[in-house]
Write a structure and sequence with these properties.
Helix content is 42%, strand content 14%. α1 links the parallel β1 and β2 (33-38). It has one domain (9-244): 3-Layer(aba) Sandwich (Rossmann fold), CATH 3.40.50. The protein has helices at residues 18-29, 42-54, 69-83, 106-134, 146-149, 155-175, 219-230; strands at 9-12, 33-38, 59-63, 88-91, 138-142, 181-187, 241-244. α1 (18-29) runs parallel beside α2 (42-54) and α1 (18-29) crosses α7 (219-230). With 251 residues, the protein is α/β, with parallel strands linked by helices. The radius of gyration is 17 Å and the shape is globular. A 7-stranded parallel beta sheet has the order 3-2-1-4-5-6-7, with helices on both faces.
């Protein structure tokens, strides 16, 4: 496959379904070789790799728990062993189940923050040497609208996603001299399939927001933006928080 990302390698966490899947497929369509990461959804993640290969691209499935240091390190090592480099890191892995604060225990709090926030830190740290060598490295963190607009039952998710904003800006400062851009895409009102981890239900905060465009977004809407931020036309964009929500929330 040829495109603006030809010769580059992307690692996408939480890429088995929904937004992560769409991002992996879109980066592959732009010419990147894509490492598709998931923790347990092996069959769904393998199908993403098969789709990339059916379209003429290169993909690699690597199951890893990126909330653990060894999992993040192993993921980046696998990417380099297979493709020889890492140019793009998309921190998408997340758990978003809703729990009223009075019922939110320490284990639930840590589970969500460890995947969303700790995982982003661990993956960025593990990928950093390769991203520095790239000369055109990009880190894109996937945020969440509820961290800006507010919602009930999501204290752990909102705290983690808000933490990604600070991490994005900090890394933009720390890594700019290495030519690495760091940005955060904040999806809102996206039609996705909610799994068991999210209670198989639509987020409650969706009921109090409407888009200005008269439709919900698709995972592909987010993937298009990630593709742009990963490419040669976004090299002057860093430290930015970019909302993609059809006007449901106007920061």
């Amino acid at each position: 496959m040829s495109g603006e990302l030809s010769g580059q390698v992307a690692v996408v966490t939480g890429a088995a379904r929904n937004i992560g899947r769409a991002i992996a497929l879109e980066l592959a369509a732009a010419g990147a070789a894509v490492v598709v990461n998931a923790k347990q959804s092996a069959e769904a993640a393998a199908e993403v790799v098969h789709e990339i290969e059916r379209q003429g691209g290169q993909g690699l499935l690597f199951l890893a728990d990126i909330s653990e240091p060894e999992g993040a390190r192993d993921l980046m090592t696998a990417a380099q062993n297979r493709f020889g480099r890492i140019d793009i890191l998309v921190n998408n892995a997340a758990i978003r189940r809703e729990v009223p604060f009075a019922q939110l225990d320490w284990a639930q709090w840590r589970e969500v923050l460890s995947v969303i926030l700790d995982g982003a830190y661990l993956c960025a740290s593990a990928a950093l040497p390769a991203l520095r060598q790239s000369g055109k490295g990009s880190i894109i963190n996937i945020g969440g609208m509820s961290a800006h607009a507010g919602s009930s039952g999501r204290a752990h998710v909102m705290a983690a996603k808000a933490g990604l904003l600070g991490l994005t800006r900090a890394l933009a400062h720390d890594l700019g001299a290495d030519g690495i851009t760091v940005n955060c895409v904040v999806p809102g009102m996206i039609n996705t399939t909610r799994g068991a981890a999210a209670g198989n239900t639509e987020p409650a905060h969706h009921a109090v927001h409407n888009t200005l465009l008269g439709r919900r977004g698709t995972p592909e809407d987010i993937a298009d933006l990630v593709r742009f931020l990963s490419g040669p036309h976004a090299r002057y964009l860093t430290g930015q928080v970019i909302h993609a929500n059809g006007g449901a929330f106007l920061p």
